Amino acid sequence: MLRAAHRHSARHADEVRSSPRCGGFYCLEIFAPDEIAEWVDRNATALCPRCGVDAGIGEMSGYPVQSAAILRAMHQEWF
Question: Which helix (H) or strand (E) holds 6?
């Protein structure tokens, strides 16, 4: 499951912009997509507005970022 979720952490601009909430799995913070100010990969991958790391997913990925459990699990796997 974590690898599938991780695929939603890059080149995800449309998914992130249409999500009600997003979460950063480096800093474990939850934020609104309109808080994202920086993008990389030709504006396809968001940088977290809290920590600046390209380690975030949106709720439209199908993973419940509001519970933070998925973010913690992803943090443990990749950081």
Answer: helix 2-6
